[in-house]
Amino acid sequence: MGSCLSVTRASPVVGRCEESATPTTSSKHDYSMEMRLHRVAGRIFLNGSSQVASLFCKQGRKGVNQDAMLLWENFCNKEGTVFCGVFDGHGPHGHTVAKKVRDSFPLKLIAQWNLHPNNNAHTLVDTSNFAKLRESFLKACKVMDKELKLHHHIDCYCSGTTAVTLLKQGHDLVIANIGDSRAVLGTLDLQGSLIAVQLTTDLKPNLPREAERIRICKGRVFALENEPRIARVWLPNVDSPGLAMARAFGDFCLKDFGVISVPDVSYHRLTEEDQFVVLATDGVWDVLSNQEVVSIVASTPRYCAARILVESAVQAWRTKMPTSKADDCSVVCLFFDSDSHPKNNSEVTNECSRIGTRAVVEQSPLLEQKQQ
User: Fold this and answer.
1) I want to staple 316 with a disulfide (CB 3.0 to 4.6 A). Which of 115, 213, 287, 372 is the partner?
2) Which residues form the PPM-type phosphatase domain (predicted)?
3) Can you tell me the distance from the alpha carbon of 135 to that of 150, in angstroms, rounded to the nearest whole number?
4) What are phi and psi of 325, to 5 degrees?
5) What is the pTM of this model?
């Protein structure tokens, strides 16, 4: 539901996270880079799974699918290092911005890391160099936003994207968040029960620190009468564009009025109780609680966990918000112990379909009960 009100989405295209076969809004250089990236081993950006993760993206009912997602194993040529993220575009060119950030931001991060002369070839993430890595994330985001502003083939004036990204090496996690997508950890409490721990903060305009910055910069924050629960960012003297987040890549019409692309960067040291982390766009979190999400993921085979979660969110949209158009939903589930028995695509599709039907049916009474 994080969108600009002053613009409309383009006409619908494919219902999956798929790529165009020919360059359209990207320059030839960008297109060539994207094609090379898409052939990198261990890099997944479409629906699927690996030994450590499950990914799934589904178009909502608002128009073109503006979500993008990424899993990149052996990131930065470091064995066992994983980079993953979800990106939720908004505005007329949001789908293009989301894919651009998905493809370019990891390269910006690698470039920033390689600038450090004392970079350890084997250790990328740990408590001793978190400050340095945090600085790399901050600079990479700054470079990414500057590139979007100068990009002649992508109009980012009233379009942008969120980004919640995660870098894992061994037992160390670094999470960087811009916007209102979310990262949630599934972990065991002292009694051995699975609980959800939110690793990021939804950076919405009504958060006190965000609202204060926006108002200092002469931007305005208020909700419309017909949607009183959704605070939006507006220009000083015009009721436009109505951005439902306080931070984003792009959205340059609001960058002088308090909207920023500076990420919240945090560190988490994994323990034996930590089971998995879920990265998802707000289409999931708008209708499912953190606890519901981790329970769904834990109760399904990992190779189709993301798909079952997305299908459960779609069902929840029908149950909880029958008069609203379902948003795009994208999920990356990253598991902390590898699956030694991954299945092929046909097996995953068939079994996920069977499990998905059962899981959605089982979820419905719970959702209906909560709604009442």
Assistant:
1) 287
2) 52-336
3) 23
4) -80, 125
5) 0.85
